[in-house]
Amino acid sequence: MSSNAIYTSLLRPPVLHILRAAGFHATKPAVLDTLVDLTARYLILLASNSATHAQENHNDLVLTVTDVRMALQDVGALWPQKSAMEENVMGEEDMRGVDKFVKWMMGEENREIRRVAGLIENEDPIPGIEVPAGRDDFLTALKKKHNKTGESSRFQGTVMGTAAEEKPIRIEGGPVESLQDWGASLRATFLKENTPPSRQSSLAPTSSTGSPLTPI
User: How many H helices and E strands in the chain?
Assistant: First the structure.
């Protein structure tokens, strides 16, 4: 399965839960695929804009709240909102869009979505919808269901787990023991074959007195 197919498969359950929380009880596969594609495109646009603002604001890819806010403003999620240039001219920060967005996210219209996501307690369960108790979202509950041993290492190094620790790969049966040594050997061989003899003599190691050293 390709990486795109994996991410699409992981995105389908959240879209289904959002549709259920909005009151839909069924949908056609083509409609679901379209909504998943639109959601993926929106998230990619939001992430790329956040990375662009992070690079412009502080010359790295460590996102801050300001970077995400500017990206949300780019995609039209914050409205009404003055642009950064208008805020600089007026000398004050316009928080209307942010306040309205937070109010919309934390309002009653999105309460069911927050409950399905595990952000609030499951007070009034809906028949037919299994929502994990406490604050576990559906993906965490699904991982616990298929990992009965309780070992988090099962998903380590995958898109659903933590990053795997980098370990040196040892090569057996050859003149080198690691990929780093093999790469260094290749680079040394390439330089030796592509350096003129006159240049090689000038690059030869010398002693402290300046005379070339005799290889042993």
Answer: 9, 0
CA dist list (Å): 205 to 185, 193, 195, 197, 208:
18, 18, 15, 14, 10
Start-to-end CA span in the chain (Å): 54
Question: Do the Cβ atoms of 70 and 58 come closer than 8 Å?
Answer: no
Whether the predicted pLDDT of 216 surpasses 60 = no
pLDDT tens for each residue of 58-80 = 999 899 998 999 999 899 898 88
Dihedral angle over CA of 36, 13, 76, 64, nearest 10:
-120
Q: Work out the angle between the directed axes of helices 96-105 and 65-74 (0-180°, nearest 10).
A: 90
| Percentage of residues of the chain with pLDDT beyond 90 | 25
Q: Which of 170, 182, 175, 145 is nearest to 160 (CA)?
A: 145
